[in-house]
Design goal:
71% helix, 15 helices, 0% strand, mainly alpha, 231 residues, flat
Length: 231
C-alpha cells in the first residue's frame, strides 16, 4: 500500500503543486484502488466456492484462509451472504439405526480423507476433526462415538501421522519444482515443504526426501531415459 501511495505522489506531483483539486483526485484514485482490491477478493472467493461445491464451510475456510480472513475483516456482510449452504446434519432420534449410520459414515470418511489429500493447494493435515468437519458431522460423531465404532476406527486409521503428513508435503513440493523445471537443493526442498530438521531425519521422511530429489535430478539415468522416450 505504501508503494501505491508513493506512485500516486510521483505521478501527480505537478498536480499537488498547482491544483487545489488534487485531494479529490487523490482520494478518487484511492477509492478506485480499494474497489479493485475488493472485487479481486470477491471474485477469488466466488471461484473457490464454485470449484469446490461438495466441500463444507469449515474446510473451504481452511483451504482459502487468506481470502476468507481478508473478506471477514473488510467485507464481512458480503462474505456471510456468499458462504456455501450449511450441510444438513441428521438430528438425534431414538429410532435411528446406528449400525446403518455407522457403516455410512465410515465409508464417507474414507472418501473425505481421499478428497482432502487430493487438493492441488498446499497440503493441510488430514485429522479426525478435519474429516468429521468435512462430512458436516463433527458435532454428531464426537459425542456419539461409542455408537459409531466403525466410523471411530476409520477416523483413527485415516488421520495422518506427523511423518505421513511430512511425506505428502515433500511430494507436493517436488511437484512444484517439477512444474517450474527446477532441480532444488535439499534445503530448498525442505523449506518449500515446511519440514523441520528433526523431522527430516525420521527414516520414512528421509527416504521420501531422497526419492524426491532423485526424481528431480536431470542427470539421473532413469530421468534421462524417460526424457529420451518422451522425445
Amino acid at each position: 500500500m505504501l508503494q501505491f501511495f508513493r506512485c500516486l505522489l510521483d505521478c501527480h506531483f505537478e498536480l499537488i503543486c498547482h491544483s487545489y483539486t488534487y485531494p479529490v483526485a487523490f482520494f478518487n484514485l484511492v477509492h478506485l484502488h480499494w474497489k479493485l482490491v475488493l472485487e479481486s477478493y470477491r471474485m477469488a472467493w466466488l471461484e473457490a466456492v464454485k470449484e469446490n461445491p461438495h466441500i463444507g464451510r469449515t474446510t473451504l475456510e481452511r483451504m482459502f484462509q487468506s481470502i476468507y480472513s481478508w473478506l471477514y475483516i473488510y467485507d464481512q456482510q458480503w462474505l456471510q451472504a456468499h458462504l456455501p449452504p450449511r450441510k444438513r446434519r441428521v438430528k438425534f432420534s431414538p429410532q435411528v439405526d446406528w449400525n446403518q449410520r455407522d457403516i455410512k459414515f465410515a465409508a464417507a470418511a474414507r472418501q473425505s480423507a481421499q478428497r482432502l489429500q487430493s487438493f492441488p493447494q498446499r497440503p493441510t493435515k488430514v485429522t479426525k476433526t478435519a474429516i468429521a468437519s468435512d462430512l458436516g458431522q463433527l458435532r454428531l460423531i464426537q459425542p456419539q462415538k461409542d455408537k459409531l465404532p466403525c466410523t471411530t476406527k476409520a477416523l483413527e486409521e485415516l488421520a495422518e501421522t506427523r511423518e505421513e503428513f511430512a511425506i505428502r508435503r515433500i511430494q507436493w513440493a517436488s511437484e512444484c519444482f517439477r512444474e517450474e523445471n527446477v532441480y532444488p537443493k535439499r534445503w530448498q526442498l525442505l523449506r518449500q515443504a515446511g519440514i523441520r530438521p528433526d523431522l527430516a531425519e525420521a527414516p520414512q521422511v528421509k527416504e521420501a526426501i531422497t526419492l524426491a530429489l532423485k526424481s528431480l535430478d536431470p542427470l539421473d539415468p532413469v530421468n534421462i531415459i524417460n526424457l529420451l522416450c518422451d522425445s
